[in-house]
Design brief:
Elements: E1 13-16, H1 17-20, H2 23-41, E2 46-52, H3 58-71, E3 74-81, H4 84-93, E4 98-102, E5 111-118, E6 121-122, H5 125-136, E7 146-149, H6 153-162, E8 170-175, H7 185-191, E9 194-198, H8 221-229, E10 234-238, E11 245-249, E12 254-255, H9 257-271, E13 276-280, H10 285-293, E14 297-301, H11 305-315, E15 319-321, E16 327-329, H12 339-352, H13 357-362, E17 368-369, E18 373-376, H14 379-394, E19 398-400, E20 405-409, E21 412-418, E22 424-431, H15 434-449
Parallel strand pairs: 2-3, 2-4, 3-7, 8-9, 8-10, 13-14, 13-15
Antiparallel strand pairs: 1-5, 4-5, 5-6, 10-11, 11-12, 15-16, 17-22, 18-22, 19-20, 20-21, 21-22
Helix pairs in contact: 2-3, 2-5, 9-10
The structure holds zinc ion.
Length: 460
């Protein structure tokens, strides 16, 4: 059977609902995933948890996928309409061999997709290609599977509530963007002791208010306004499937993922002094410095939630975070990225602190940085450019090459990395001052213009 290559991606399977995700293809994906799992587990019987998000297309995809999984002999435990962290929790709680979450995450409603997991980790890019290969060659196993309904949402809420203790009521605005967070996140925050003002809290999978991505300025306009308007301590936004968080301080400022990671790292280091904290290559030097200042050991790693979880598990790292708003909790938790748990924890941190959220952010070192800049190129050229940058800058400066190349200048750094999902080189730079940043940008411009790239959209 033919498989459109662009939908089998580095971290998940995702595409346009009407063009890419036909019933036949999704049924085949279900059978291929079950086949892959039976091989991986070395067992005739595999148990797979299944959850789906609020998108109008999700029930159709669920039915086709379930049919495929059952035909390949899987025992499917259907946990229902849930945010992604609840599906992750179900995989642990029900001791499944793996799981699938049907979600398009933060993308517009015409998209949907599948997050596939083996045991407690996401499938790697290579494993996703193996699943695709099973479809292409129609190498499905068959069997007599079954489907059972196993809701775990109530248990999940009890579990989160048992791990969060607010010392006083914290006033918060919550914006789940009509997506999965609107199912129960507001109630859970209320239950752990927050006073919650709710924005866009009716479930509507067409996302009529704004795209469910709370790390993008354009989609936190309502949240920022509301926080200032009714004078609360924090605004919290959740992405479409609640594995990423965005936060706004009491002055209405959007907090970046690396700053949020620093706030949670301080809390982790207070409880377990001296541990390592993981963060991705896009993060500010301010995060590294703050981890050190609080007695921790900074651990820089590749961008991407599956890379982070795998590494943290291998190395026994208790907490980590990414610029993108994925926060990972391994200490007294299950090791997955959970924005609902993070929201409750953030309220707990605020309830125990003498400092307001804005004061915490202001206590971090502040540097001048560019946003993430995207340079459009070709699939082959993106790897070449990064390889050439490694060579060129490697001869002149200290570089880190765990994911693309991060160049350490005397007064700042720059990152060039090939996007995992698009023909794009991602660029970011930071300087101690605005003039340091200008000098670094110039140096990057010189390197790129010698290779035929004249225009860099620094402020795009
Ligand atoms: Zn997401």
């Amino acid at each position: 059977m033919e498989t459109p290559g662009h939908i089998f991606r580095e971290y998940d399977v995702r595409g346009l609902v009407d063009e890419d995700l036909s019933d036949d293809l999704v049924r085949a994906l279900g059978s291929a995933f079950a086949t892959f799992m039976r091989r991986a587990a070395g067992s005739e019987v595999v148990t797979l948890a299944l959850g789906w998000d609020v998108r109008p297309s999700s029930p159709r995809l669920r039915d086709a996928l379930t049919e495929g999984m059952i035909a390949a002999g899987a025992r499917v435990l259907d946990v229902g309409l849930v945010p992604t962290p609840v599906l992750y929790y179900a995989c642990h709680r029900l001791e499944t061999d793996g799981g699938v979450m049907i979600t398009g995450s933060h993308n517009p409603p015409e998209y949907n997709g599948f997050k596939l997991g083996y045991r407690d980790l996401p499938l790697s890019g290579a494993e996703i290609q193996q699943v695709r290969e099973i479809i292409t060659t129609e190498a499905f196993v068959s069997g007599a599977g079954i489907r059972e309904e196993r809701p775990v949402t109530d248990e999940y809420c009890d579990m989160v509530a048992s791990k969060v203790n607010l010392e006083r009521e914290v006033r918060v605005v919550l914006d789940p963007a009509n997506a999965c967070g609107a199912l129960f996140a507001g109630d859970l925050l209320q239950r752990v002791g927050a006073r919650v003002d709710r924005l866009h809290d009716d479930v509507d999978g067409t996302f009529p208010s704004h795209h469910p991505d709370p790390t993008v300025d354009a989609y936190v306009v309502d949240l920022r306004r509301r926080v200032v308007e009714i004078d609360v301590e924090v605004g919290i936004g959740l992405d479409g499937d609640c594995d990423r968080i965005g936060a706004v301080d009491e002055t209405g400022r959007l907090i970046r993922g690396d700053q949020l990671t620093a706030i949670f790292a301080r809390d982790q280091l207070r409880r377990t002094p001296g541990v390592r904290i993981l963060y991705d290559v896009k993060s500010s030097r301010a995060l590294e410095e703050d981890i050190r200042a609080h007695g921790g050991v900074p651990f820089m790693w590749k961008t991407g939630h599956s890379h982070a979880k795998r590494k943290m598990k291998e190395e026994g790292i208790p907490f980590g975070g990414e610029m993108s708003g994925h926060l990972f909790f391994f200490d007294d938790y299950w090791g997955f990225d959970d924005a609902i748990f993070a929201a409750c924890k953030l309220c707990e941190i605020l309830s125990r602190s003498e400092m307001s959220l804005a004061a915490m952010i202001d206590s971090l070192n502040s540097y001048s940085s560019t946003p993430e800049v995207r340079i459009e190129t070709t699939e082959e050229r993106k790897w070449e450019l990064v390889r050439e940058a490694k060579e060129w800058f490697g001869e002149r400066y200290d570089t880190v090459d765990i994911d693309g190349v991060r160049i350490t200048f005397e007064k700042g750094w720059a990152l060039l990395r090939a996007s995992n999902t698009q023909p794009v080189v991602v660029l970011r730079a930071e300087g101690q001052s605005e003039s340091d940043l200008t000098a670094i940008k110039l140096e990057i411009e010189r390197f790129l213009s010698a290779r035929g790239i004249a225009e860099i959209p620094w402020n795009a």
